[in-house]
Amino acid sequence: MSSTRTWPVHLALGAGALVMLAPFAWQLIVSLQSLPESLRVPPAFVPSWQWSNFAEVFRTVPLARQMFNTVVVTAAVTAGQLLLCSLAAFAFARLRFPGRGLLFGLFLAVLMVPAELFLIPRYEIMQGLGWLNTLQALIAPGVFGAFGTFLLRQFFRTLPRELDEAARLDGANPLQIYWWIMLPLVRPGLLALGLLTVMWSWSSLLWPLVVNTDPELMTLSAGLASLRGQYLTDFPILFAGSIVASLPMIVLFVVMQRQLIAGIAFTGSKG
């Protein structure tokens, strides 16, 4: 296709990119304003370069501690998802057992249930275990998911059956086949699931707000939500904290976007 035919597409994509970037640009502008400037009508589009807002957010909430909590929770949830979901996906894709199709259908049915319906049962379980206001309460519900199982199952199904047969002839059991043969071959799927889990866990808000009330044990999203006041919100401080919380995920996505897109696209190569 010639460049004369593609320029309208590029123009439309460029306009869409500008629309998508507009909220981030406004967030940066407000984070560098004073509170009266952020409340001005009509709005002021030129910041007064209040860099002290970024230091103030660390004094207002224990942001460093909350970032540490977020890193710990995200790492634990991601590790659990990669291990448990890959084990379940391997079983559904490579092993034959009675009721496999029905059980997998029940797994997929979980994806249709709104996550909010699980809040009360999960809260009661955490309360019964005495895990309220602990990091394990943030980690345990997220270490396994139906979506991760479905995603990795698609990868396992693309691998030829001859690999399993050759490994069994060499005396390998199913666990050895999973760990030494199959798992290295689905590395793109593991990477895609890992990146999606990191981004989901890093920005999770509702569950951390429900299960933890101690600011020292909150994650970044819940800690920033506490900056909203009942009658007045200091938007420059809030937006400065949001930028600090978003930067790691922005950098991660920019660096790993090719692997993420390739991994998700590859899931549709075989049903």
TrEMBL record:
<feature type="transmembrane region" description="Helical">
    <location>
        <begin position="235"/>
        <end position="255"/>
    </location>
</feature>
<comment type="similarity">
    <text>Belongs to the binding-protein-dependent transport system permease family.</text>
</comment>
<protein>
    <submittedName>
        <fullName>Carbohydrate ABC transporter permease</fullName>
    </submittedName>
</protein>
<dbReference type="InterPro" id="IPR000515">
    <property type="entry name" value="MetI-like"/>
</dbReference>
<feature type="transmembrane region" description="Helical">
    <location>
        <begin position="102"/>
        <end position="123"/>
    </location>
</feature>
<dbReference type="Pfam" id="PF00528">
    <property type="entry name" value="BPD_transp_1"/>
</dbReference>
<keyword id="KW-0472">Membrane</keyword>
<dbReference type="InterPro" id="IPR035906">
    <property type="entry name" value="MetI-like_sf"/>
</dbReference>
<keyword id="KW-1133">Transmembrane helix</keyword>
<keyword id="KW-0812">Transmembrane</keyword>
<keyword id="KW-0813">Transport</keyword>
<feature type="transmembrane region" description="Helical">
    <location>
        <begin position="177"/>
        <end position="202"/>
    </location>
</feature>
<dbReference type="InterPro" id="IPR010916">
    <property type="entry name" value="TonB_box_CS"/>
</dbReference>
<feature type="transmembrane region" description="Helical">
    <location>
        <begin position="67"/>
        <end position="90"/>
    </location>
</feature>
<feature type="domain" description="ABC transmembrane type-1">
    <location>
        <begin position="67"/>
        <end position="256"/>
    </location>
</feature>
<keyword id="KW-1003">Cell membrane</keyword>
<feature type="transmembrane region" description="Helical">
    <location>
        <begin position="135"/>
        <end position="156"/>
    </location>
</feature>
